[in-house]
């Protein structure tokens, strides 16, 4: 029991001790809790104080990470580039090695070529010396050719002037003959027109030779002869060959250009500025090229005699201004259709057809047509416009020879009047050799350019399928009647020359047609007159061509007297 009491006492003492320790521990725990609260407050204060710095450090950290990633990407790219450069360097090393080998080869080749170059250079030097000698000889030859060519041109100019003087003194009507080339439209009887473009040139030339008549030009120097060859079957069945030889003042082959034709008549056309009356008319059957010769085509190289003559007249008058002359020009365009004169330049709004009459002035040799539109001319382009207008108004119809055939005679008249105003120096270029003291002198010239209607027989005048109505028959009859009247006048002029020698005054039937009456002064000696005979090259037109050539020969042999210059004082 004592032991138990002792244990109990120890237990109670231990309990008391523990209670005290527990009380002490509680008091210490409270103190620590207060210290923890204080520490927590301080920590919160420190967190708040360093939150901004932490955020900045975090942002800086993220930026550093981003930069690190970019650097890593750049490093990756650089590594790839480095690998590529290494491969390229390896390739270049191989190329350099190959080129080094090639250079060695080229060096040896260069050495060999240099030896060849030296040899060739020696040859070149020799050739250069020879070339220099040849160039010197060529230059001397070209100089000689130039001199000879100039002399030839001067000789040709002198020849033309002397020829013109001889013809004027003879008083003849000059006649030129022009043969047109074979055209593609002439081949339509042999081959369809739409297949012509597909044929080779050799085949086209063969076809042209097949349809062309045998025409030769033996005079290769002065070009004054033309020969036609024909063959036919006689009554006994034998082949009969005939040769027709004709000579004129000038013969133009099919290859002749418009410029070459005008070159021969340019001095004649220019004479109107010197105070002469000039008449140039185109004659020939339908389809022989009369309208092309007189009016030409749309390009400069194909321009006809009318626009070229007008352009030359304008050039001459412009030059003569420096010699103290002033000119005024005017033009008119008419046609004679069924023996009736029509004004081709009449106003478009004109509803009444005026009656025109032909008037001749025996004192001046001038010919006028009443109530005809006269247009002042200021430039060659204006004349081209008038030609286009007149062409659109001409009477045309389809014939066997030409689908669009002129059925009327057209006459373009250019009148020029000049007055000397006494300005500038007078020299040899003055056509009248007048001095300034002769101021007031006047000259009047006239240029008639005539495109006659086609001459053909009535039985060949109409195309297959065309209706030979009364109007077409009447047209052809009037055309042939007027051309026949022209032949009668030419014949009468020839007879007058013979009758005049015997003192007999021969009547000339100018009034038998409007055409001959209009051309009276051109045929009676008051004009410088030229007829351009146009011929078709086709074999089917051979007889018509021979008829035209015979008529032209009769014209060429007709004496009409010497033209007079129209110059008068004011």
UniProtKB/TrEMBL annotation:
Coiled coil: 1-81, 110-151
GO terms (BP aspect): microtubule-based movement
PROSITE patterns in the cross-refs: KINESIN_MOTOR_2
All copies of domain Kinesin motor, residue ranges: 172-558
GO MF entries: ATP binding; microtubule binding; microtubule motor activity
Cellular component, GO annotation: microtubule
Pfam families: Kinesin
Keyword Endoplasmic reticulum recorded: no
Family statement drawn from the similarity comment of this UniProt entry: Belongs to the TRAFAC class myosin-kinesin ATPase superfamily. Kinesin family.
Protein name: Kinesin motor domain-containing protein
